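Q: Sequence in, structure out?
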Amino acid sequence: MQVTATQAKNRFGAICAQAKTEPVFVEKDGRIDTVIVSMAQFTQLQAAARPETLTQRQTQFEQTHCAWFAEQNQRFESRGLWCDDLRVW
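A: Exactly. Output:
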């Protein structure tokens, strides 16, 4: 549904009721300026935009690079550090 800002002001209660079933686009100066949505829709939008926590990102990183970590650990155990035999002159 699309209404003008004046219509939204004059029929605010009806507009809020309509927003529970579909987004209401409020037009100002010939362009859509604002969108009125229900609380349920707003909550969904917030949940979708919420960034992942650090723990979630760490878990995802470890799962993605698990094979590489295992390869590096195996290489270290078989060969040791690359700089073990360096001499300081």
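The two ends are 79 Å apart (CA to CA).
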